[in-house]
Amino acid sequence: MDTQASPARPVLEAPDIARVLTRIAHEIVERAKGADDVVLLGIPTRGVFLAQRLAAKLERITERKVPCGSLDITMYRDDLRMQPPRALARTDIPGDGIDGKLVVLVDDVLFSGRTIRAALDALNDIGRPRAVQLAVLVDRGHRELPIRADYVGKNLPTSLRETVKVQLAEEDGRDTVLLGAKPATPGERQH
Amino acid sequence: MQRHLISAADLTRDDAVLILDTAEEMSRVADRPIKKLPTLRGRTVVNLFFEDSTRTRISFEAAEKRLSADVINFSAKGSSVSKGESLKDTAQTLEAMGVDAVVIRHGASGAPYRLANSGWIDAAVINAGDGTHQHPTQALLDAFTMRRRLIGRDAGLGQDLSGKRVTIVGDILHSRVARSNVDLLHTLGAEVTLVAPPTLLPVGVETWPCAVSYDLDAALPKCDAVMMLRVQRERMNAAFFPTEREYSRRYGLDGDRMAKLPEHAVVMHPGPMVRGMEITAEVADSGRCTAVEQVTNGVSIRMAVLYLLLGGNEPAVAPTRTEEK
Known about the structure:
Function (chain A): Also displays a weak uracil phosphoribosyltransferase activity which is not physiologically significant. Regulates the transcription of the pyrimidine nucleotide (pyr) operon in response to exogenous pyrimidines.
InterPro entries (chain A): PRTase-like (IPR029057), PRTase_dom (IPR000836), PyrR (IPR023050), PyrR_bifunctional (IPR050137)
Number of domains of chain B: 2
Catalytic activity (chain A): UMP + diphosphate = 5-phospho-alpha-D-ribose 1-diphosphate + uracil
Order of helices and strands of chain B: HEHEHEHEHEHEEHEHHEHH
Low-confidence stretches of chain B: 319-325
EC number (chain A): 2.4.2.9
Number of strands of chain A: 8
CATH architecture of the largest domain in chain B: 3-Layer(aba) Sandwich
Strand order of the largest sheet of chain A: 3-2-4-5-6
Number of strands of chain B: 9
CATH class of chain A: Alpha Beta
Mean pLDDT of chain A: 91
Shape of chain A: globular
Strand content of chain B: 5-15%
Strand content of chain A: 25-35%
CATH class of the largest domain in chain B: Alpha Beta
Structural class of chain B: alpha/beta
Mean pLDDT of chain B: 91
Family (chain A): Belongs to the purine/pyrimidine phosphoribosyltransferase family. PyrR subfamily.
Oligomer: heterodimer
Order of helices and strands of chain A: EHEHEEHEEEHE
């Protein structure tokens, strides 16, 4: 949903996104000292595509297969009761599971932190990772929970009246991050 | 506004596909070490069973517990109903206890509808079988099983059953399963043929959205799924057919008949099976019979229905007809 009020301004374009993901992949390898036990879990929808891209880059760096899956957090949301039930997305845990692994959660935008809280709850029901880290393409601030990202593509200071929209080729046909103004209807957050 | 699941006929194609897709994701919970989701935490669901049932009640209970709902089981035996309490008073008792949903099975057709539309109760009502009327979650789990077997687990997502040919054989007259299946399969685009002796077909069957035949052997070679129904001995109060042997010879599914089915076709049975009557042990135990799979799928379907009706602030599935309040 793009805003009609003022045209959304791109803050990251396709080459920027590719560079940012390459950097994050290197950071993961560096911090995990080789990334032997890394499992990437993307949060649907766009986090999954980012996780897949990261996995491909990690495989190129480490020359090893990196398990990559998806983690749907719909059933764990804290605002489930405040809106109509959403359609569920796929939870796909790689074959070897997550017990004792280093799980890197991947999402497109980090905002209130509530999605990540839900993801941590969901992980709890699936297994016991050695550690959990968080990689996001954009951190737009305004946290409502004590949660931070370990790998950030771009820190994007925003006001609450702005919207951040990530578009990825797999879903939207092009790679870009758009910063726009919120349409007149208040009270709804996009991320 | 309150929403319920009373009849398979109330579901639109999109609603039905949404339920099937949601069930597909729910089925993955069964593969996890902790088979539980926090989604319905703090919600109370009553299983109100006025008629005997093992499969359906256990299936609903498992689904409710996997979604972390608080479950209260009620069966008419050993309750105030045996002392003469009416459905209305039972409903008001439940309402006073603050239940969020009632799963009801009742011997009288229309009891769930009455419960949902009478104003006695605020809770969502889910029909778990009423008389000879409807059993919508059974139809949904049958459709789910067909979609999985005939189209595939992942390939089926978002798909309906367009062009699939389904034959339903047996006691159509007393079968709420057949009614629900005809409604839902028609909505999902499948072609349904009912096969039964004329005495076991209801009056007005020609107005249903399906074909009718008396000849099982002619129907078998051109169907993708054949659903065998139990002959409901407890409702056989008139001479519907001469002998059980004759019924079983003309309308029972044995190995020879199964061989006439196309290679990919599946044999379904809602259970409980009466081996030797409508289905032989050879067929029931073969890999093409999905009876056990249907039970497993039943839990996923009921989780999906409960989630979509109770999970949010308003239901995602919007029946059109049952809003008279």
